[in-house]
Amino acid sequence: MDEKMSLTVGDAVDYNGLPADRSNTGGWVPAALILGIEICERLSTMGIAVNLVTYLGGVMHLPSSTSANIVTDFMGTCFLLCLLGGFLADSFLGRYKTIAVFALVQTLGTGMLATITALPELRPPPCHTRDINCKEANGFQIAILYLALYLIALGTGGLKSSVSGFGTDQFDEKDEKEKAQMAYFFNRFFFFISIGTLTAVTVLVYIQDEVGRSLAYGICSASMLIAILIFLSGTKKYRYKKSSGSPIVHIFQVIAAAIRKRNMSLPYNIDMLYEDTPDESRIRHTDQFNFLDKAAIVAEGDLKENTKGPNPWKLRSVTRVEEVKMMGRLLPIWATTIIFWTTYAQMITFSVEQASTMNRRIGNFQIPAGSLTVFFVAAILITLAVYDRIIMPLWNKWKGKTGFSSLQKIAIGLVLSTLGMAVAALVEMKRLSVAKSVNNNTTADDHVPISVFLLIPQFFLVGSGEAFIYTGQLDFFITQSPKGMKTMSTGLFLTTLSLGFFVSSFLVSVVKKVTTSNGGQGWLADNINHGRLDCFYGLLAVLGFVNLIIYLICAAWYKPHKPKPLQPGIV
């Protein structure tokens, strides 16, 4: 009997709803099939985003700041909708169905974008210079473009919050071998999706600029369709975790019960608080946010209203209360990582626009402006490789730990991004000085005689920062969240990306309005050669430094969740 039980995974089932047999379900092969979806999602989303600003300015003839905001709003919406995907996965569909449904939605969106960019009627007449003869895209043309972009955003948001969670579902945390495999899954996960990004900013961007955007977007749609078929092929091999209900409802129930009993006093002994969770699944009581403990006070009549248990809106167990506390403790770390993604947004908007004005030739070959982000992706891959092969072994030898903690990784990412913006400001000062010395009337279509490779340091610093902060955030939000709220927690993590892009749009709008109040072109002029983008980068460096100080305070305050140790003999 014991031997038979050891062959099954306690909290997972197979596609028939039976206890999952660890010998023929889960593991690296099913996890790899799931990674295919994420690789193609990144190929599509980043392939569109990194070169969209050049399409909006060069083809749709929109102003520089407007183009940048459209890109950041699109990316922000992608990640904001991860909350919707997480809610649907936890409450109704499950992660498997959520991934399948929203991957199809994204396939439809990229197919629509391929069609739109192929039709001359859906873009304004071409022109070579940005002058009074250049007509901007009309309302209808913009509306159709928005429809395709936000269909893609819906698909991306819906599937992205579930992919990493469904991938970790394929490993059993109670098995030491599989637990170690899951730890490496986080790094491998980010490495492989970075491969998707690398393909996007090289091959896909080149096809967009040199062959045609409709073909490039068609490739995105076809690759996602193939990835869906590969994903579905693993249906019988996957492990499925049972849903414990909507985590949002659980959170509101705890808050409602605590408010209802706000005038009651907590007992002197915490053992008097209500608890109905099996001993092996209980979460130990903590002192932070102790006002929520009132939700677990047993009031008169709480246990007598019905035979099925107490009303969850009036009485919650200590474990349920602690789950809400765990989510609450994540919020300060969540808030202080948003500014990194505001910095990241510049790498696919203004930095690409900078590249479009600089000398991008290597012999007879001209590098597409959007492909400069290859240095950004290269920095991610190099950083992950160095960390995996050099830093982790040395850290293990010195400190006896397998690597930096998730909070340390996030701190390193914030430091590197702040340095990246400081360097970007200095490089832009140099670019502007050259532009002005050559011709004070240089237009946005003319190249400044300065090498585009001067942008490499800012791409490399922010890219290395992303390697640390993305893996740190993913690890932190998944491992420090309650078991039943991991999909929602992943969605919460991805909203930092969303809000970072929205903050970027907000900053661009505010800076443009404030700096053009006296009738000048301001920091973010339509022609960046007449603006002061260096000042904008400097502002982001200052904001990044202030945010880093606040983050360090929040990280020192944070108390990590420590699982209850297993008793001898319990598997």
Q: What secondary-structure arrangement, pairings included, does this model have?
A:
Elements: H1 2-6, E1 8-13, E2 19-21, H2 28-58, H3 64-80, H4 82-118, H5 139-168, H6 176-210, H7 213-233, E3 240-241, H8 247-260, H9 318-335, H10 338-347, H11 350-356, E4 358-359, E5 361-362, E6 365-366, H12 374-399, H13 406-438, E7 448-451, H14 456-479, H15 486-515, H16 533-557
Parallel strand pairs: 4-7
Antiparallel strand pairs: 1-2, 1-3, 5-6
Give a short account of the largest sheet. 3 strands, antiparallel
* Total count of helical runs of at least 4 residues: 16
List the uncertain runs.
1-5, 441-445, 564-571
* CATH H-level homologous superfamily name of the largest domain: MFS general substrate transporter like domains
Mean pLDDT: 82
Distance between the termini: 14 Å
Share in β-strands: under 5%
By oligomeric state, this entry counts as: single chain
Encode the helix/strand succession as letters.
HEEHHHHHHEHHHHEEEHHEHHH
Q: What structural category arises from helix and sheet content?
A: mainly alpha
Question: If you consult CATH, what is the topology of the largest domain?
Answer: Growth Hormone, Chain: A
Rg (CA only): 26 Å
Q: How many strand units?
A: 7
How much helicity do the residues have? 55-70%
Protein traits:
single chain, 571 residues, mainly alpha, Growth Hormone, Chain: A, 2 domains, 3-stranded antiparallel beta sheet, 7 strands, globular, disordered N terminus, disordered C terminus
